[in-house]
Write a structure and sequence with these properties.
Structural class: mainly alpha
Shape: globular
Strand order of the largest sheet: 1-2-3
CATH superfamily: Farnesyl Diphosphate Synthase
CATH class: Mainly Alpha
Order of helices and strands: HHHHHEEHHHHEHH
Distance between the termini: 44 Å
Number of helices: 11
Strand content: under 5%
Length: 271
């Protein structure tokens, strides 16, 4: 059975704690890990429904996962402040999803996309983390359970999730474009075509334009966000934060470094 990577996030975070705290948190760690998987699966189904990739009949399945996530977190019987934070974090997600539904997408017909004169990404850069911030509630739950809510890692998660969202958007830039979705990754390309029509069947041409006008900007921004996240997690002792950096940040930074080297050879004038 496939285990989602987010299943291990609570374990990675627990390693920044001292030995006494690590021992205490073992009591709720299995629950937090299961809840992560339920929420991850629910969010993926909800996303697919928003993108018209899943039928609304899958909503029952998503709702079931979501209820199982909530049941676990409410059984933890944490302070009221935690549950207020949970509500606020889900409100951020709800606003983003509402905006995604209400925002006019690019019209696609016969593999041709009519780009508006003033294209704008559905999610602004400062709100990139809102889409998946709910996946970091386990961290707040852990600290409230330990009666250490002052240990706030919201900035770390915000930088990391923003970097991850940009990386995902950069990987899916063409698929998103075919769905008529404007992301921060394909936005620079769409600015070139604003008010004009893009022939989506010209994949090689579009790939070249993306590499020349979008890729480097994305690489630099993802790297910048990862380094900011690293500074935040290093507010704990560096030797304790090494696992979370290696497991969450290093893969993104390595991919950025590899892509930058590749593009520098292909388009030296851009570097």
């Amino acid at each position: 059975m496939k285990i989602e990577k987010c299943y291990f996030w609570p374990t990675y975070l627990s390693l920044v704690l001292n030995k006494v705290e690590q021992k205490r948190v073992q009591k709720i760690l299995p629950d937090l890990k299961r809840a992560q998987v339920f929420l991850w699966r629910a969010l993926n189904i909800y996303d697919d429904i928003l993108d018209k990739e899943n039928k609304e009949t899958d909503l029952l399945k998503a709702n079931n996962y979501y209820r199982r996530f909530l049941a676990i977190h409410y059984r933890l019987n944490l302070p009221e402040d935690y549950y207020q934070k949970l509500d606020k974090t889900f409100s951020r997600l709800e606003k983003i999803n509402k905006k995604e539904i209400e925002t006019t997408k690019i019209t696609i017909k016969d593999e041709k996309a009519l780009v508006p004169k003033n294209p704008k990404p559905i999610i602004l850069k400062q709100n990139l983390a809102d889409k998946s911030a709910v996946l970091t509630l386990f961290a707040s739950a852990m600290f409230f359970y330990l009666k250490k809510p002052a240990l706030n890692l919201d900035k770390f998660w915000n930088y990391f999730l923003s970097a991850k969202q940009l990386a995902d958007d950069s990987y899916d830039w063409l698929e998103d474009l075919k769905k008529g979705i404007i992301t921060n990754a394909n936005y620079p390309l769409l600015k070139i075509y604003q008010g004009k029509t893009i022939n989506l069947s010209q994949k090689k041409k579009l790939q070249t334009l993306f590499e020349k006008h979008c890729a480097l900007t994305m690489i630099k921004e993802i790297s910048r966000l990862c380094l900011k996240a690293e500074k935040e997690i290093d507010k704990f002792k560096k030797e304790k934060s090494s696992t979370i950096k290696n497991k969450l940040l290093k893969p993104l930074l390595t991919a950025c470094s590899s892509a930058e080297k590749s593009f520098s050879l292909k388009y030296p004038s851009n570097f």
